[in-house]
Design goal:
With 255 residues, this protein is of the alpha/beta class. The chain is 48% helix and 12% strand.
């Protein structure tokens, strides 16, 4: 059996390329630290004969730089968070998305789907195309019947709106149990649609939990937006749609 070093690294908790990156970064920063220390020694006139606190000042300054960088980033993020709360302040601090030309929807409940569609179509007046992704019957015994008929109901409601809106139904559907199936299709839509990624938004309100996971994973790159519609179970009132906001850079892994 061939020895696979990548598998060994994954067992340790990180992909092989991550370890390679850490190693290269460690060497790089080590040399930068050494060069900076030499520069500070020259700047402060520190030699091997220098005595007292100043002899240790260059090393202390180099040692404190990472902590200063982390502190600066933390302060910047805190200020951005406070600014965001001021700009988008409401009773729940939830932010609604900008109007988009394309909307990708997981289908189950036609009411929540129409709520999202009408937001981008009527309130923002930007929506031009909707892609509906129903579940198929591959795991009907565990997840219930496919939601293709729900998608067709949404299409009929869109036609009654009396506006030029293209509705595309993925008739083949995706597996309600396989997140990869939804991931692949949503990823293809972002790659191959006539719109740029920033003109699209994906809504994971409908569908099964594995379908939602697949859509969320496909929208991890920073240029892909993600939203959901909330429903009050008592009043049966829908709210939103609300933008999913997170630190994209930490998850920008998908090409």
């Amino acid at each position: 059996m061939p020895f696979k070093i990548g598998r060994v690294f994954r067992k340790m908790g990180l992909p092989a390329w991550t370890f390679v990156g850490i190693g290269i970064s460690a060497i790089w920063f080590n040399y930068i630290g050494s060069l900076l220390e030499k520069f500070l020694k020259v700047r402060f006139g520190v030699t091997d004969q220098t005595q007292g606190f100043i002899a240790y000042l260059p090393q202390l300054m180099v040692f404190s730089l990472p902590f200063m960088a982390v502190g600066f980033i933390w302060l910047r993020q805190s200020l951005r968070h406070q600014t965001s709360k001021i700009l988008f302040h409401d009773s729940s601090h939830l932010q609604k998305p900008e109007g988009k030309k394309g909307l990708i929807l997981l289908t189950s409940n036609p009411n929540s789907a129409m709520f999202a569609i009408e937001y981008h179509l009527n309130e923002k007046e930007t929506l031009e195309c909707v892609w509906l992704i129903p579940s198929n019957n591959s795991e009907e015994d565990k997840f219930g019947p496919p939601s293709l008929e729900n998608a067709r109901e949404i299409e009929r409601r869109c036609e009654k709106l009396g506006k030029k809106l293209k509705v595309r139904i993925y008739d083949r559907g995706v597996s309600p149990a396989d997140s990869q199936d939804t991931f692949d299709y949503v990823n293809r839509l972002f790659r191959n649609s006539p719109y740029s990624p920033d003109e699209l938004i994906a809504d994971f309100t409908g569908g099964t939990k594995p379908m939602s996971v697949g859509m969320i994973m496909a929208c991890l790159p920073a240029e892909r937006a993600l939203e959901y519609v909330s429903l009050n179970p008592i009043s049966k009132q829908s709210y939103g749609p609300y933008l999913i906001d997170y630190q994209h850079r930490a998850f920008d892994l998908i090409g």
